[in-house]
Amino acid sequence: MAVGLGSFPVIPSISGVRFAAMEAGIKKANKKDVVVFELAEGSAVAGVFTQNQFCAAPVRVCREHLAKAKPRFLVINTGNANAGTGKSGLQNALHTCETLANLTGVSLEQVLPFSTGVIGEPLPVDKITSVLPSALKSMASEGWSDAGLGIMTTDTLPKGAYRQVEIAGKVITIGGISKGAGMIRPNMATMLGFIFTDAAVDQMALQSLLKQTTDQSFNRITIDSDTSTNDSCIAVATGAAQVPVITDFTQGDGALFAAAFLEVMQELAHAIVRDGEGATKFVTVEVKGAEQQSDATKTAFEIAHSPLVKTALFASDPNWGRILAVVGRAGVDSLNVDTVSIFINGCEIVREGGRSPSYSEDAGQLAMNPEEIHIVVDLGSGDQADTVWTTDFSHEYVTINAEYRT
Amino acid sequence: MAVGLGSFPVIPSISGVRFAAMEAGIKKANKKDVVVFELAEGSAVAGVFTQNQFCAAPVRVCREHLAKAKPRFLVINTGNANAGTGKSGLQNALHTCETLANLTGVSLEQVLPFSTGVIGEPLPVDKITSVLPSALKSMASEGWSDAGLGIMTTDTLPKGAYRQVEIAGKVITIGGISKGAGMIRPNMATMLGFIFTDAAVDQMALQSLLKQTTDQSFNRITIDSDTSTNDSCIAVATGAAQVPVITDFTQGDGALFAAAFLEVMQELAHAIVRDGEGATKFVTVEVKGAEQQSDATKTAFEIAHSPLVKTALFASDPNWGRILAVVGRAGVDSLNVDTVSIFINGCEIVREGGRSPSYSEDAGQLAMNPEEIHIVVDLGSGDQADTVWTTDFSHEYVTINAEYRT
Question: Would you call B321 and A119 a contact, using CB atoms and an 8 Å cutoff?
Fold first, then answer.
């Protein structure tokens, strides 16, 4: 029941990136569940990872390998998160990398592993390594939807996005895939996002761009407030398009590139929300008029996490008192309740902290009916703002998560 | 579908306290929705209220009146919270108090108003004031279940508790009622709790006892993480039993009284959880082995709020990886993931941060089946602990909150 999520885009091939998606039998039969990416030598690779202290084994390995070498391969499995698995989990992640390194002649540290799925079960490492030889034989630079399918868990649709911009007279492509539908409240990154470009970007600049745009995309979405143990987002710039290296995003081609990069990141992040477990609404929560940006961020997330607000959204019920109650408990010290206004899809619902004189139940109902809901809370006490994207809370969410392992 | 909540206890009459429960037509026909309490002259009255900055009009009036005078009457309506109602809400709360004051000859400030129900609708003040004369004619000191019924919203059962202890050779009674089933994550108090005793307690001592026991009862329960705008908890000591005034709870009769008082508070708080919206489980979350108590409190609440943990509880699914993931994201700086153990109903599930060697899926399933679930998380890094009580997250919760106003 994804909300407004179109079919997978036809992402063009990105020079310097090849991949294959395989069936290793970790998920149900006839489902792709292992994806291997090969990156051109010399590619700049940046990564951001979960802040969950129980981070998964592959996240620990990724961090260590990224610090030591320039990656040449990414290997991703779904169906098992390899988290909460202790020392044997680490060994399994390393063994996967080692097998791929031996098959391709790169060093162990040049392989980055990623896992997503059930937490706490031993990784079926033999299933993964057994498909690596055939994966290497079928590497291609097109057919991105297979890669999108190969990293899905409770996702109902594969997620991809791309943009093209002209740099120094050449068209370069920024494309990527993402996955995730539950345990989504990323903190630094999302439950697997991979963004590739054939532009050339300085390594440090790419890392800073990834971090900055993550804070405007994956770090501003929430489905159920649960930060995953496996969140990882990787950006790769292969440089294979043979254009000048970008080092500065504040002007010229660099600014053009950064804007397109942010669009890809946001489209991938929004796709996760649109396909959120049981989602029937795509909800934008914008808080403005705050003294501090952190107040806006905090209030927006509290609204997006409130089970009462989310069930009212599911029912298309203009029960705005629940939004008001969240604003009051969000912990904004400077809050002046008498200056708060609330709008839903442009309909003024609260003015000066109480029901707007122009509000009617009919108008509220009309505003709540669409699949796309834009909530604006104006705190009326400053000029800082932030925006968060989320979904409603439906019966289907309960069903999916009560039956996830059955 | 209340969990293990027995029938309403036969609370004895408490000298100095009389009450009446009326049908004012705010809720559906044939439902009691206004309750009036009369307190003996000279009663000590203590109160704790919501920390939600959008506190309701009656909460503001209560705080002001309590600071000015010794209360003689409490007037409570359900069906409408009188919150988010601005200046006219305040006027309506004051008008209710004034009407009761005029009918009884006490001062305006000696009446405390309480409201609970839908947020943002104008208070039907005429309905409330119109039943006050007949309420005053039918005041009685028994029939507490009617008072419990008269303050219910989405509660399925009235909630009451009492204890009796001997002070200076006389039996004194501590009894009370509470309500609440949704928007329950009290911060200072719950969505209406009233505790009465005929013992004599010093005013300052009563306030400190109420605050302290609230932190061990109402402030440690959560159903859906949403702090209400109307939470209020009132303790009344009429002194009508003619026993020595209690000023010290550390020894003798005072200690006996305080222990019984805490038991009543906890029983009333647990009753709210047992009758939580859609609850099929009563869940105790105990976090111990913490360096700081605040770390234990924070971790326990994060587990209790996690939609993924709550849906797994609903399904009786031993998906303990979700608990582990919450511990890792709870924000405990001193967390050492390698010393964490987790037990469910005595079954060791996690040891040293990974799956316990003794764990089996069958044992986990057995542990998750009962209606009463005790989760113990031992952080293994200190001697501080805290306990929080909560419910699971069921289809019924979504249904109740999607259809609340229809």
Answer: yes
